[in-house]
Specification:
By secondary structure, the protein is mainly beta. It has three helices and 49 strands. The strands form twelve sheets. It has a 22-stranded antiparallel beta barrel. It is globular and about 75 Å long. The termini are far apart.
Length: 819
């Protein structure tokens, strides 16, 4: 079936190419229409025109990002229809997915399937990119990219290149925006020439957006705001034409919590959440953006890093590149997990501290020979310390009454702490053999050695009195800001509200290692100067990790805890073409792909009366296949149109052990039933415990089958005297998506589209531009994530939803100025 599907996709590509080629041949030559501009990218670690790269790559300049009002990392999904961004309870657990595949986990023992790279440095924390200020360009590489891009990248790469200083130019740039919900974006850029060989570039940014989730118990206060301050400095040193040194440092601070949720469904009207919502005047549903929490969320993020890149031109056209990077990320995110004004579990969340050091050394040959290549060495070392848990009274208020009791006898806590050390050593290379001026064979390989260790502890807290300032609803005390308030008692303590855990292991030390060879082979055929076709087969790699979360029966083998997660191995086949027609006024690229992931690393969560139990394990097999196409047309010298579409069918293969969803059977009694294929005690097997299913055949969580985008850009000089008029519009649409591996229909987001637009005016020399912009112009409320209610005792069968900043309309005005 896989081969038949792939052949069908190839036939579609050939037909599409033939039709457009025929149209090109029939078109009349001539006219003075401008051509479609193409970008220079470094997807193969050397500067190339994007149309010459035999990979599925999407790229955009920093100017294009500003035109689309793309200011945050998650908004990069609007550049490519095969890219999505999964929102979770904290920015460090939110992540990209490409072609349906990504990693979103609370565990500090896993890294991302989609690697985020900034100026050549791999980030252990992808959300360390707090703002997209002063970006030169962004590249999105789809499919396994483990040959040349450092750590992992089993599903793709988001590569961000910031703007280098300019020698000999004194320049100041300002980007100022103000919009609805008090949206403030302030960016100041200074390019300062030091002397003939040295220049400095400094960027300062402030991003603010009022909280879009409201809590009526705190006077309608908005929670979930964006509040980011960041600064970056780059120093360019060019003592001669052969040597280039770029030193970079950046720091950012966010002082607000990320990703508060609201109740989407509360099917039993007698339970605590439903009763408290009615008392607060909240109506659950897809359009709900209010929550009756008894305590305000809090969090912070402190991030900084530094890098040094040295490029040296050797004789005969060879070049040597060294990239050294260090990153530091410190985050805390805590929120009220009971979604009610009483303290059942008023503190839920965690904190993480991540550091990583990387060193890459790369030799690049000239391209004038029959055989050219890139070879290199890579070293990566990281340490990630994490803590997640809950604090509360863990009562069980299911009565229908106007006053729900708040205080219980014992305030308890449950937490897991982990400390993961990882080292990665690699040697890599890619060579291209030119049979002639048209045909080339590209072979690449990477040998990787991974070494990891885990220190894990599961602990409980026991308090006889409520925390000062903790209850009633008055927010969280500052003395608990750095973590969970102490003192810790005996690990794995059992109290009246924390049931006995017979398989509780207070402290665990475990290590794992792995050797891997990943590779890629590509045949590239430049059929004409404007038409290139390619075919690729690749074996990717994502290294091993740990499930640094709650220990369950699935982690215990022969009465021994095993938190190890096996490597994730994709095998990918891709065929595509890149073309330009009508004297470069029309660009058309398309590809068809089929990728199978062995031992896919996945997190599943089971709601319990006291809160979520989340574990990570290998999901057996995942398959993603599809077709992608992008078209850009210069309709007139002033008007450019772009259209992009993708069909991505991402499905779980063998994935046992996924928790069943629950449906309310009788609102009067609160009785619930599990999904029809849920395993019972009578049908349980060693691979399927009671209350679980095999998710084989289900859609990957968060992956829509169909997506498309359409855009128009208009630029007309001398529209108002000497002023140039600018206008653009874009439409992004996606089909229905399920956020649950078990296929829970309550966790599905219907198909929707988002409309954006801008209109502006400015002089031809671009000294300034004044614009009015709109994102989500139609004010479409949509959920960026839907999950089961985390405390099943308070909302059995219910769900919560995450609302993105772009789940609401933003109208605003922007001023761009250069001086």
């Amino acid at each position: 079936m896989g081969k038949a599907w792939l052949l069908g996709g190839v036939s579609a590509l050939v037909t599409l190419a033939f039709c457009v080629g025929s149209a090109n041949a029939a078109a009349a030559a001539g006219g003075d229409a401008a051509t479609v501009e193409t970008l220079i990218v470094t997807a193969e670690k050397r500067a190339e025109n994007i149309q010459d790269v035999p990979l599925a790559v999407t790229a955009a300049t920093g100017d294009a990002l500003r035109e689309k009002h793309i200011e945050q990392l998650q908004e990069l999904r609007y550049l490519d229809t095969s890219v999505n961004y999964r929102v979770s309870t904290g920015s460090n657990t939110s992540a990209f997915a490409i072609r349906g595949v990504g990693t979103s986990s609370f565990s500090s023992g896993l890294e991302q399937s989609v690697s985020t790279v900034v100026d050549g440095v791999v980030l252990s924390d992808p959300s360390a990119v707090q703002t997209l200020a002063d970006i030169d360009h962004v590249e999105i590489l789809k499919g396994p990219q483990g040959m040349l891009f450092g750590k992992n990248a089993s599903a793709g790469v988001i590569s961000i290149t910031t703007t280098d200083p300019k020698i000999g130019e004194l320049e100041g740039i300002a980007h100022l925006s103000y919009g609805e919900r008090n949206e403030q974006i302030l960016q100041g850029i200074a390019n300062i020439p030091i002397n003939d060989d040295v220049a400095l570039r400094v960027v300062a940014t402030h991003n603010h957006l009022n909280g879009w989730v409201k809590d009526p118990l705190f006077g309608g206060k908005g929670v979930n705001p964006i509040d980011i301050d960041a600064v970056r400095a780059k120093l360019l040193i060019r003592p001669n034409g052969d040597l280039k040194i770029v030193l970079s440092a950046d720091a950012s601070y966010t002082g607000e919590f990320c990703c508060s949720q609201v109740v989407r469904t509360a099917p039993d009207p007698h339970t605590g959440v439903a009763v408290s919502d009615r008392q607060a005047g909240i109506v659950e549903g897809p359009n709900n953006y209010e929550v009756a929490d008894g305590a305000l969320p809090f969090g912070h993020g402190r991030i900084w890093g530094a890098s040094a890149q040295v490029d040296y031109s050797l004789p005969a056209g060879y070049s040597l590149t060294s990239i050294t990077g260090y990153r530091y990320s410190n985050r805390s995110n805590f929120y009220d997990a009971d979604f009610a004004p009483f303290n059942f579990a008023d503190v839920n969340g965690g904190r993480s501290l991540a550091t990583n050091f990387s060193q890459e050394l790369r030799l690049t040959s000239p391209t004038s020979q029959r055989f050219d290549y890139v070879v290199g060495l890579y070293y990566y070392s990281s340490r990630t310390r994490g803590q997640i848990g809950q604090i509360g009274y863990f009562a069980n208020p299911t009565i229908d009454t106007s006053v729900i009791p708040a205080a219980q006898q014992v305030l308890a806590s449950d937490a897991q702490s982990s400390d993961v050390h990882a080292k990665d050593y690699a040697v890599f290379g890619q060579g291209r053999f030119h049979f002639n001026d048209q045909l080339a064979l590209i072979l690449g390989g990477r040998y990787t050695r991974d070494e990891l260790s885990l220190e894990y502890e599961e602990s409980g807290l026991d308090h006889s009195l409520p925390l000062r300032g903790f209850y009633p609803a008055s927010g969280f005390p500052t003395n608990s800001y750095i973590g969970f308030p102490g003192p810790y008692v005996t690990p794995c303590v059992t109290t009246a509200v924390l049931p006995a855990r017979p398989n509780c292991f207070p402290a665990i030390h475990q290590s794992t290692s792995n050797d891997n060879f990943s590779w890629r082979a590509t045949l590239q055929d430049d059929l004409t100067p404007d038409f290139m076709a390619y075919a690729t087969v690749a074996r990717g790699y994502k290294g091993p990790g740990f499930s640094a979360l709650t220990i369950t029966a699935s982690n215990i083998v022969n009465n021994q805890v095993d938190q190890r997660i096996r490597p994730e191995i994709p095998t990918s086949y891709e065929i595509g073409f890149k073309s330009q027609f009508l004297e470069h006024r029309l660009l058309l690229n398309a590809d068809v792909f089929h990728t199978t992931y062995k031992n896919f690393q996945a997190q599943v969560s089971t709601p319990t009366p006291n809160g979520f139990v989340s574990i990570v394990h290998n999901a057996g097999e995942v398959t993603t296949k599809g077709i992608e196409a992008a078209l850009v047309a210069k309709l007139t010298p002033e008007l450019t149109a772009n259209l992009q579409a993708s069909y991505v069918k991402a499905r779980y293969g063998d994935f046992p052990g996924v928790s069943c969803y629950v449906t309310l059977a009788n609102p009067n009694t609160g009785a619930t039933v599990a999904q029809p294929d849920c395993t019972t005690a009578a049908t349980a097997t060693p691979r399927l415990a009671p209350g679980t299913i095999n998710a084989s055949g289900n859609r990957l969580a968060g992956s829509p089958d169909y997506q498309y985008l359409a855009g128009l850009d208009y630029e007309r000089p001398n529209s108002f005297g000497s002023l140039t008029a600018y206008a653009s519009a874009n439409w992004n649409w996606q089909s229905k998506v399920s956020y649950a591996a078990n296929g829970d229909p309550k966790q599905a987001q219907k198909a929707f589209g988002l409309l954006g637009a801008s209109i502006g005016v400015g002089p031809a020399d671009e000294a300034w531009r004044l614009s009015v912009y709109a994102t989500n112009l139609l004010d479409k409320h949509w959920a960026a994530g839907i999950s089961p209610a985390p405390t099943a005792a308070l909302n059995p069968g219910g769900t919560i939803q995450y609302l993105s900043p772009d789940s609401f309309r933003h109208l605003g005005v922007r001023l761009d100025a250069k001086f």
